[in-house]
Amino acid sequence: MKKNRENAQATSPIGRNLPTRERVLEVACELFAEAGFHGTHLREICKRAETNVAGVCYHFQSKEGLYQAVMMEAGRQLSDLDRNFITSTQLPAEHRLLALTESLLQRLGAKRAWIAKLLARELADHADSAHNYAASRLERDFVLLQAAMKDLTGAQDRGEAVRLHALTLISECLFYSLIAENPRHPLTQLTVTPPTRALARFLTKHLLRAIQTESAEQDISDFTL
Known about the structure:
By secondary structure, this protein is mostly helical. The protein contains 10 helices and no strands.
């Protein structure tokens, strides 16, 4: 009896005995993160996932559909907040900033570092037909960071400064997640990346110092030095 390729199991290290759809998605997450949409070919995905183009199209319709699925998976994992993370407004703003920063580093590091790579690839080589679900999930962090910073400053008229600080913190988390994956890169070799909690504390303290310094100065929207 002919085996159903869509339900076949693989024994490859990457597939880890996953069904075809999950196996293809796992391989695609890795390859799209490494080479971007335009630099990734279906034949390489099929080779690593031990399937064929027909199997990929059966589950995802096309390369574009597979890329959308990868983006949705990245967004899903970014939305999977640590249950110990609390956003209650009853917590001090400093604690919320630290918790958000540590959560971002955790969700973009280790086994999820491919998400940071995927976001960086999208910045450099955007797939016009794709909706960036991963980037849209960062909007929640962006909003929460701004809310905590506004509570710290007690001012509602420094919107541009607050937005820039929030975006800077997110970009720093992305940067440290990326360099942790490239130990031989010259920038990585400049320093030893500290553990997640220590790095989160450093980034938060740096942000707090910047906010405190600016609180006695004019709004950054003037862009004067």
